[in-house]
Write a structure and sequence with these properties.
Strand content: under 5%
Distance between the termini: 15 Å
Number of domains: 1
Number of helices: 2
Number of strands: 0
Radius of gyration: 20 Å
Helix content: over 70%
Low-confidence stretches: none
Mean pLDDT: 87
Oligomer: single chain
Structural class: mainly alpha
Shape: rod-shaped
Length: 90
Amino acid sequence: MNAKPEIKYFKSFVVYTLVALFGGAVVGAIQGAILGGILAATGSDLSTIQMVSGISGFLFGTIISFFVYRWVIRTQIIPQVAKYYEINNP
């Protein structure tokens, strides 16, 4: 009887969460500052700047989260599963 592979899901989840959180925050802050500066220079009012920066920050954060997710799966999960099947299915 084959045992299930021991995959460190919690470690992968923590790595994903921290990298996506801080990466998204940094990218969101940078793009928000740039976009806010551009909109302020064109004379937009504060509520428009907040709304546009919030929406674009959400979109940028989602994109960062997706790429971090793919990276964690590729570097953390797949090698563990491959190692399990390599050992159990020579």
